[in-house]
């Protein structure tokens, strides 16, 4: 009996020791597994939060000390995913809407130059009737309080930032966001120039051969802007962003009267009208020389077909 008890007790001790070792090993493995899972989660979180960098930057000359003073301290604006940015709202929050509209349009143009070369979608954008000297053709964005806003939408699944900072009188605007394999390029096509017409005003106060230029006029311009999207250097998509048109500004010229028979009141015609009259006179003279017997017929026909034009005085 004693031997059996001793053997039984020994086997019990061995069994208990084996169980303890097994449980201890399982505990170590579970701890290692938990540590590995935690490390994997941390790496995944780091991967889901890409490092942000400066994507685009523009420098805006304002020549407006008051407005530039609002940006002495850096201002950062979050462009959250699936949200729309409004420039008017941005200005309202900083109470600078009552200032010079040209300065605000300069800021709008600088921002537009950044976002049009990024994944943002343009919701609202306007241009002036005359292209301003500070804006590149096709890249202007005009702003008028409560009338013309600049709005764009962030369709991405992550946020961006706009940074504003005064740098020695220049407003530096930066678009900050994660690095991406996708890149964007703005291309201009179908650039056209339209020469202005000349408006001629006859002034009896001038000498017969005198000419005075009141307005030099300005060429009109048009352009189509296209955004191209690349993935790892390969063209993936091409979208027409805008077709901008600036009409020509007429040239205004004053001339002296050449005939004493003309009324002593100044009149206005365009240069094209003058050319048409001269061409018609030359053509009539040629017909008269070739067919002098048809004068009466032509006059009657002309009376039937054409009305006498009104002379603007």
Automatic annotation (TrEMBL):
Bias type Polar residues, positions? 262-272
* Region spans: Disordered: 262-313
Biased segments, Basic and acidic residues type: 276-313
What Pfam families does the record point to? G5, VanW
Q: Which residues form a coiled coil?
A: none
> What UniProt keywords apply to this chain's record, in alphabetical order?
Membrane, Signal, Transmembrane, Transmembrane helix
Q: Specify the G5 domain's residue ranges.
A: 180-259
The family database entries (SMART domains) matched by this protein are listed as: G5
Transmembrane regions: 6-24
Q: Do you know which InterPro entries this protein is assigned to?
A: G5_dom, Glycopeptide_resist_protein, Vancomycin_resist_VanW
| Protein name (record) | VanW family protein
Q: Which organism is it from?
A: Metabacillus fastidiosus
């Amino acid at each position: 009996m004693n031997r059996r008890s001793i053997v039984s007790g020994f086997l019990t001790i061995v069994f208990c020791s084996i169980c303890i070792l097994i449980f201890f090993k399982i505990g170590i493995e579970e701890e290692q597994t938990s540590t590995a899972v935690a490390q994997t989660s941390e790496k995944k979180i780091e991967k889901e939060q890409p490092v942000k960098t400066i994507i685009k930057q523009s420098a805006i000359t304002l020549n407006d000390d008051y407005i530039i003073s609002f940006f002495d301290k850096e201002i950062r604006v979050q462009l959250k995913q699936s949200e729309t940015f409004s420039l008017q709202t941005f200005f309202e929050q900083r109470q600078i809407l009552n200032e010079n509209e040209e300065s605000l349009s300069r800021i709008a143009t600088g921002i537009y130059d950044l976002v049009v070369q990024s994944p943002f979608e343009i919701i609202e954008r306007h241009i002036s009737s005359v292209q301003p000297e500070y804006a590149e053709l096709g890249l202007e964005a005009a702003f008028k309080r409560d009338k013309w806003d600049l709005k764009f939408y962030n369709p991405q699944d992550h946020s961006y930032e706009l940074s504003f900072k005064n740098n020695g009188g220049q407003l530096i605007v930066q678009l900050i966001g994660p690095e991406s394999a996708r890149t964007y390029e703005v291309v201009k096509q179908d650039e056209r120039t339209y020469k202005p017409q000349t408006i001629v005003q006859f002034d009896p106060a001038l000498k017969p051969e005198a000419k005075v230029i009141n307005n030099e006029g300005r060429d009109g311009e048009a352009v189509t802007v296209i955004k191209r999207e690349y993935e790892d250097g390969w063209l993936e998509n091409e979208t027409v962003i805008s077709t901008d048109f600036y009409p020509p500004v007429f040239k205004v010229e004053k001339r002296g009267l050449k005939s004493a028979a003309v009324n002593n009141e100044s009149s206005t015609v365009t240069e094209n009208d003058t050319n048409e009259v001269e061409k018609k006179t030359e053509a009539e003279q040629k017909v008269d020389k070739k067919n002098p017997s048809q004068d009466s017929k032509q006059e009657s026909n002309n009376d039937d077909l054409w009305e006498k034009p009104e002379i603007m005085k």
